[in-house]
Amino acid sequence: MMKEFPIPLVAIGPGSQPEEEALQYMPLPASMMTFALPVLNEEADPALMAAACRVVEQLRDKMRVTPLGSPDIPQAELHEVDAEVVQLLNQTLGEGEVSIAVRGSGQYRIQETVFASVWRVHEFATDGRLIGDTIMACAIPPMVVQWARDGVSLECPIPEKTPGIMNALSVLSEIVGKAGAFKSGDAAHVVNLTLLPMSPEDMNCLTMALGVGAVTILSRGYGNCRITSTRLPNVWWVQYFNSMDTLILNTLEVSEVPEVALASQEDYEDSIERLGEWLHVMQAPEDMNE
Prior knowledge:
Layout: H1 46-65, E1 75-77, H2 83-93, E2 98-102, E3 107-112, E4 118-124, E5 130-137, H3 142-148, H4 168-181, E6 189-192, H5 200-210, E7 215-221, E8 223-229, E9 235-241, E10 247-254, H6 265-282, H7 284-289
Antiparallel strand pairs: 1-5, 2-3, 2-7, 3-4, 4-5, 6-10, 7-8, 8-9, 9-10
Helix pairs in contact: 1-2, 1-6, 4-5
């Protein structure tokens, strides 16, 4: 079964708390996650397993003929699939490195499976009902980019300098300018706040000016990383934590989606091969009974 998705909404954005207060974040694992082929559920009903295998096989076959980045994203709709088959798929596909929550006029919970670039996407109505359930193969589900732009605006007035502010106004001016000039396909522009003298007043100024957007991404790959969209288009907070959950790198990034959250071409190709291995393992009992 999929785990609960307890990603809290940060009221005034990351990095805004005074230094003496403890940062409150979702607990993150202390080590890098690595791929392990899911274990065969030997107690699963053979008919349910066969149905789950058909879903995966169709997805894998679509991935074979569809390049990563194609607008025709390989996917399998599960909302009308038998609940026991969906449960079996959840158990055997597992959970990978990246989790995403989308809040706003769209409500999504997205979890990468153990097969990088293969995502479980749940869409919810405003009353909490599940209205969409999909397996999707792509660098990142497109609604993440779509809803990161929900309610954003390039209108970001630079506030007056007040006591305690050192570098926030120049950082804001730089970020607003880069966001206004950004075009799809441009290289990311990164401002490393960790390397700048930033007072609590600076951080409060940045978070109040940029606000908190609709998307939160947690990546547990090469380090623990929390990514949060802002109310400025294509501007993200990207924060890295050590194994003690201490913030060790704090950046602002201008990009469609920070690269750390994206599955790569290599991920995609590896997952096509590994899904074939998955099918070989899961279909083995059926083969032996023939």
